[in-house]
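Subject: for your reference before the review

Hello V.,

The reviewers asked for a structural picture of the protein, and I figured it would be easier to keep everything in one thread rather than splitting it across files. Below is the amino acid sequence we used in the manuscript, unchanged from the supplementary table.
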Amino acid sequence: MIRKIALSALAIAPAIVLVLHLAPRGNAQAPADSISGKVFFNGTRPTVRNISMDANITCAKLHPNGVPSQEVLLNSDNSLRNALVYVKAGTGIAGKQFPAPTEAIKIDQKGCMFEPHVVAAMTSQRIEIANADPSNHNVHVMSEVNPIFNVSQVPQAPPKVAQFAKPELGLVLMCNIHPWMRVYVNVMSNPYYAITGADGSFTIKGLPPGLYTLEAWHEKYGSQEKKARVGGKADFTFVE
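And here is what came back from the structure prediction:
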C-alpha cells in the first residue's frame, strides 16, 4: 500500500511543477513598487490644427507647410500622449518633504517649437531653456502662483534657468515673438509622476506600499482622479 501511494505521488509531481513554472508568466500585475496604466480619450476625434508660420520668415523657411499642433496627440486606440499622471495623496507621501533632483530638466527651442511640449519638474529643480534656432526667442513664464518673468534669448545663448518654489499644474512657458510656441511645465511636490509616452502609457515607480490617489492632467481635457494600490494598474479616460 505504501509503495502504491509513493508511485502516485511521483506521477502527479511533474504536473505540480509545471503549474508552478507557468503561473508567473500569466501575472499581469505591475511591479511591487509601481503603478502603471494608460490614458485614453472617449469622444469625437478632434481635427488636428495646422500651425502656420508664414508670419515669420525664418520660421516659415523651416516649416513652409506649417506643423501640426501638439495640443491633442491621439493614437489609433484612442490612447493619449503628453498627459501627466501623478500621486496626489496617500500614506506613503503624507507629511513628507522630498529634495529636488540635482539633474536639470532641459527644454529646447528648435525649429520655432518648444521641445518637449509637456514636462514635469519638482519644486526648486533647475529647468534649463536653450535656443538652438538661428532666430531670437523670448522666454515668458505665465504662472498663477509662482513668479512671472519675461526675458529675451538670442541664438545659441547660454540656457535660461528657471526654478519654481510652489507646486503648479500647467504652468505656461511661451515665446511672445512666436506665439504658437508654448510648453506646459508641471511643478510637483513629490517625485511620483510620469508623462504618457508614445503609446499613451505611464509607470510611476519607487512607491512605498499603500493606497494612493492619482490625478491625470491634460492641457485640453483637464484633470480627473482615481485611487490605485501599489502593484496595481490605473487607466484614465477623458470624455469630451
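For the response letter, the relevant points are probably these. The first strand starts at residue 35 and ends at 42. Helices lie at 2-22, 57-62.

Happy to draft the paragraph if you're swamped.

O.
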